[in-house]
Amino acid sequence: MKHNILNTGLYGLLVKNAPNKVFISIVLSSVAGLLQVMLIPLLVSSFNLQASHLAPGIEFGGAWEQWGLRIDSPRFAVCFFAACLLILVLRGTSGRLMNEVVTKLSLDLKRFIYNKVATAPVQDLEKVGFSTLMASLTSDIDKLSTGARMIPIILNYLIVIGGVVAMLGYLNPGVTLFILVSAVIGVACYQPFSYFGGEALGRARQCVNQVIEFNRGLIYGSKELKLNRRKRDAYMAELYQVEDQQRRLQLKGGTLFLVGSQFAGLMNMLVIGLVAFVMSNFYALSPDALIAIVMILLYLSEPMMGIVECLSSLIPARISVMAVRKCLKQLRAEIEQADDTRVAIHKLQAYQLEYAYDVKDKGDFQFKVGPVSATFRRGQVSFITGGNGSGKSTLSKVLSLHYLPSDGCVLINDERVTDDNRSKMRQNISAIFTDFHLFPRLYDVAEGAAAKIPDYMQELKLEQRVSLDGGKFSTLGLSDGQRKRVALLVSYLEDRDVYVFDEWAADQDPQFKEFFYTTILFRLRELGKIVIVITHDDRYFHLADQLIKMENGALKAIEMREALAA
Fold first, then answer.
1. Bond from prior residue into 371 cis (ω within 30 degrees of 0)
2. Does residue 500 sit in helix, strand or coil?
């Protein structure tokens, strides 16, 4: 995507996405607007009003009669209907072109956000949150697209209004001045409706994130909610409360825009009434001139109301642009080297490593891990243990280079890991976290590993539960233990130098727990891998080469194999 929503407005996004199509769409819409303006003198002249100065030199005399039908001014009728058909074609073509641009823009924006998410540090993604990202990818992009489609329509209306006002100025400058002053007053009176309506819709947009988060909890927390009806009812009540608040804000915003729209229509009729009953006497307008002016003002009603209606789509689009921009500003991009060759990892070292979570307020409790100093070498299995909240999982994310230390450092082969090189260093690390995600297909299989898949499937007792067809798993509808075994299979096939397992054995039956600790870890050690295991299974501690004990975020002790075996 060539443009960036972080520093480009809605119109700028359209122009940079497809400048030629946007230009042609605007030109066609403008020509259609000019043709709509030209219909007025034709209509006035056809009514034989004393306003021939609107269309000097145009003669539409005579009549055509056939089969009992009479058409006055047939040449005018042909021109009028031909112009209407041409307007239809021009506006339709303009809308089609703009729709193509908006559709492509919507896809490009989504892909831009996909890439931002894919290249953002894990800390940033966790800070922004799932619900905010989902809202940006769904409702915000849809509203942005809807608003963008209004641009050529608004331009068409503006040209019609400009042409009509110019025509009125030609007819009677005094009446035109009165109409312009009335328009300024009308716009000023409409501003409170627009401002407070937009403010209400902006607050309703903030509720979208909460609703998505509640829906996520409703789906992924269904087991917990079913076990406690009071908890479920309280959760549902809170969800309904947020949705009711969103509905009230949307209703308030929509009502304000509706009232503003009706007010604009009333102002238009009020101006027509003042012209007909007051200004006609003040400027001594002839009946024919008055009828012409009133007809032109009635013709002006449609574009005026159209612009007001379009604003009800443009303002939510602007709110969505700001929401997406705010979301993306929180996502930094990790530096990725063009060379994706894996760095062979012989030693992974934490030196006075500390990691502290960000807090919103200074008075909030800030959980911190460290300082931790430890070394992990090839052919070595390390266990990290400790109670809940001791910092084990946080430490595993730092060691897998998802988090960068707040203080101290991580070294790979005695080279310090920084923002500049961590993406490259991380490519030779495989990890299965407690909140792991299982993808529906294999995306990266090490050379020669595919031939071992049947043996691995049989060894992990998966051959009866799931199969692979063209690299895609037949099903992911498995038990938690089976899903972890599939994740282990994927990790095997990736063949990395470093393996991190966060409570992998927690959901396994005794048979596979034993198999994991005595066979899988031994095999990885024999292959010369660096293996880091987060575990509570103290009966297997003696199998570790080193045991790292954590407590309240701090390193309590490191015991080596000799001491463990004693």
1. yes
2. strand
Decide: 182 and 267 in contact? Cβ < 8 Å. Answer: yes
Q: In whole angstroms, what is the distance from residue 225 CA to residue 17 CA?
A: 46
Distance, in Å, from the CA atom of 276 to the CA atom of 376, rounded to the nearest integer, reads 91
Using an 8 Å Cβ cutoff, are 324 and 142 in contact?
no
For the domain made up of 10-20+96-329, give the CATH fold: ABC transporter transmembrane region fold (1.20.1560)
Residue count (the chain): 566
3-state secondary structure 270-290: HHHHHHHHHHHHHCCCCHHHH
- Give the integer Cα–Cα distance in Å for 405 and 351: 10
Q: Give the amino acid at 407.
A: D
Give me the residues paired with residue 374 across strands. Answer: 350
pLDDT digits (tens, 9 = 90+) for 483-538: 888 888 888 888 899 999 998 888 788 888 888 999 999 999 999 999 999 998 88
**What tokens does 26 get?**
């605007």
Across the strands, what pairs with 347?
377
Of the candidates 315, 320, 16, the one whose C-alpha atom is nearest the C-alpha of residue 144 is 320
- Among left, alpha and beta (phi > 0; psi -120 to 50; other), residue 415 is beta
Distance CA 391, CA 266 (A): 66
Neighbours of 442 (CB within 10 A): 18
pLDDT in tens, 170-206: 878 888 888 888 888 888 888 888 888 888 888 888 8
Q: Find the Cα–Cα–Cα–Cα dihedral 426, 432, 436, 437, rounded to 10°.
A: 70
Say yes or no to pLDDT of 53 above 60: no
Element (H, E) at 114: helix 74-119
Q: Is 189 helix (H, G, I), strand (E, B) or coil?
A: helix
Cβ proximity of 536 and 386 under 8 Å: no
- Among 7-11, 29-33, 199-203, 373-377, the range scoring the smallest mean pLDDT is 7-11
Class of domain 347-565: alpha beta
Beta-carbon count within 10 A of 532 CB: 26
Same fold: 10-20+96-329 with 347-565: no
Residues 480 and 507: beta-carbon distance below 8 Å: yes
The pLDDT of residue 52 is: 46
Instruction: Please report, for the chain, the start and end positions of each structural domain, with discontinuous segments joined by +.
Output: 10-20+96-329, 347-565
Tokens in use for 468?
A: 């692979």
H/E stretch holding 257:
helix 229-274
- List, as own/partner pairs, every contact residues 441-448 make where C-beta atoms lie below 8 angstroms and the sequence separation is at least 24, other chains included: 441/470, 441/471, 441/472, 441/473, 442/468, 442/471, 442/472, 442/490, 442/493, 443/471, 444/494, 445/471, 445/493, 445/494, 446/493, 446/494, 446/495
| Burial of 140 per CB tally in 10 Å (0-12, 13-18, 19+) | buried
Give the closest residue to 283 by CA, choosing from 134, 178, 412: 178
Question: Half-sphere exposure of 434 toward its Cβ, with a 13 Å CA cutoff?
Answer: 12
Percent above pLDDT 90 for the chain: 10
Q: From CA 112, how far away is CA 350, in angstroms rounded?
A: 35
